[in-house]
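User: I'm putting together a teaching handout on how multi-component assemblies are represented. Below are the sequence lines for each component of a complex, exactly as they appear in our records. Could you produce the 3D structure of the whole assembly as structure tokens, so the students can see both representations side by side? Please keep the chain order the same as the input.
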Amino acid sequence: MRIRLPLLLIILSCPLVVLALDHDNLDPNRPIQMEDAYAIPEGEIGLESGVRFNDRRRGRTGVIFQPQIIYGAFRNTQIEIQTDLLTEPLSAVGPSRSGDLHLGVLYNFNTETLQLPAFAVRVEADLPTGVNSRGIDTQITGIMTRSFGRLRAHLNAGYTIVGQAQGLERNGSYRFVAALSYPVGYPNRFRETLILDVYTRQSDLVGQRNNTGIEIGIRHQLSSRIVVDAGVGTEFYGPADRAAATGTVGLSVGF
Amino acid sequence: MWKKALIVLLLVSGVVAACAQFEQRDKRFYYRALWNFALREDLKELDIDFNGIDFGHSHLYENLLLTNAEDVQAIEDRARKETLRFIASRPALPPNEEAIAPTYMKLAWRAQNTFDEAHALHRATYDIYVAELSSEQREQALEKVLRFYKKSPYAITGHRLDHQRLDTLPYSKAFRRRFPLFNATIWAYHYLQIAVYDPLAAAPDLKSKQQAVQPILDRYHRYLAEPPVAWTFMPLTAEYSPRFAQQLPEIANIFDNLHMLHDTISDILTSLSFRTWDEKRQEIYRALDSYYLASADQTNPMIIPVGGGQERGHRH
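Assistant: Of course. Below is the structure of the complete assembly, with chains in the same order as your input.
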């Protein structure tokens, strides 16, 4: 595994000099793939970055850098620009390629009430700006958040339409994530949220089993503006090259 | 056949009830400026106590709701002491209020968002008073944050409300009568929040600002140890920061009205007149929409006309 340490340090340290997203507001990949139904506040700008390693059962271990900008463009609406930079760009398969520009909008319909969960929809487009990338991939995801006391449950259900599938790649695939989050430390401390999810998604190539796994992560409010996160996971079912172990560290800065 | 009809009826009732509770989240980021977090960075002692206060209201509302305000010991002893323990823990950051009061937040989110935006205005004014700004820069900054605040549909009216009249609603005083210790603790928070403005404004530099707020912090902590139960009304800005109230009457009115809204909601959550959570929610929203939000200014019967005289003095 080749980790470019200087690059990693730059990505992790740059946002520290600026101004944080709330540690209880859960965005995808920070640090695990689930998200809650809430957008960041109107007017907030968030800079997020993370480093994710994927130790596959077959094939080389990959490292992914995930810089992202989030903007609370309107009340209950956030827009996102993101890219994934892979250390093994040529070996990537499926809709997400190294260097693709990812544009997304999350709209939160409502806040949770005593009778009604919170609902949101996310619409995304991946522009083929990356290595060996063709066609515009689009994705739509429905998100629901329901709390039970301090425990919050989240469901994400998405479908990706691949713009121009290559070789044995699927033309489209679904993804389901079920997650729980819990603010640890009440009533003395309010700086950490623990997150757990299980997911299943259709494999990138046809004829293979669903990638199915479990992840656990924590988000820690470091200062008024900075949240750091870390997570680990494994895929216990799926194709032969599924992830044996994944790990993520990242930070989010809101200003 | 009748079973299907019953299921359909239940489903329709569920959807209608759910739609009746449909509310948008509408969170808004605070006014962005170079002086953001000046209080946290430069006057930590005061900021830490404000962080402690953020716990108090949410923890009270959650406990009033979950106990139906019937268990005096649960509020006066347990919940109050938990609040004091949190304050004593010297929190460096504000707590996550949705983790403190998950039930209350689902009951009356719109009222909570009203609090959040007014608290953000509070925080902004402290930052402005602590930051190294000239008088002119401070005035301009205060004007900008007030303008930003007033743009929100969740803004509390900047007009002076008739607090005495608001304190004569059918359920008024229910909280302070049943829970005098916790009520006096809440009023002690409000004392701290408003008493620091004039001393901060008068102090020329950071060191003197730190010195100026220390007696107020000492007095506040004495109030926490021995809640001022002899008080008969909440502290008002004009009593403790008269120059601030005179120079910035709209902001002072917003803070007094905010503190009165806290009292009104405590009374609704305590009152036996509202037996169900839904009834409490309806009354919270009725009071909010009719008496407190700036959007009701044209019809609000509680607004004191300009020149309507000073509010009666209070016994502190």
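A couple of points students might notice: Residues 1-20 of chain A have pLDDT under 50 and may be disordered. Chain A has one domain: 5-254.
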